[in-house]
Amino acid sequence: HVHLVESGGGLVQAGGSLRLSCTWSESTISPLAVAWFRQTPGREHEFQAGISWKGGEIYYADSVKGRFTISRDNAKKTAYLYMNTLKPEDTAVYYCAATQIVTRWSSQDEYDYWGQGTQVTVSP
Hints:
Layout: E1 4-7, E2 10-13, E3 18-24, E4 33-39, E5 46-51, E6 58-60, E7 68-73, E8 78-83, E9 92-99, E10 113-114, E11 118-123
Parallel strand pairs: 2-11
Antiparallel strand pairs: 1-3, 3-8, 4-5, 4-9, 5-6, 7-8, 9-10, 9-11
């Protein structure tokens, strides 16, 4: 089992930036692909970005291309989501998700492990 913990959410004004972190527990399960999703009330998890174990594959949702950057540091067992030029519509709970093998990065069903989420609120 892999335990994921997100941090870095908070309240920011439109146009501002945040960095989210996702740290995973010590695990013999590897490699791990990591993705970030977000969720607003009444909606399913929406894919934001994904990164493969060594970072050779990176994917973004069209809505965040050019504004969000995903990265990872396997030595620190941490993945990051740098969010710039934030908009009020980016307000959501952001989740880190992980799995060993992923084919459809944007599908929440692909991921076996999820964090508890961190709230991001962007004020106008």
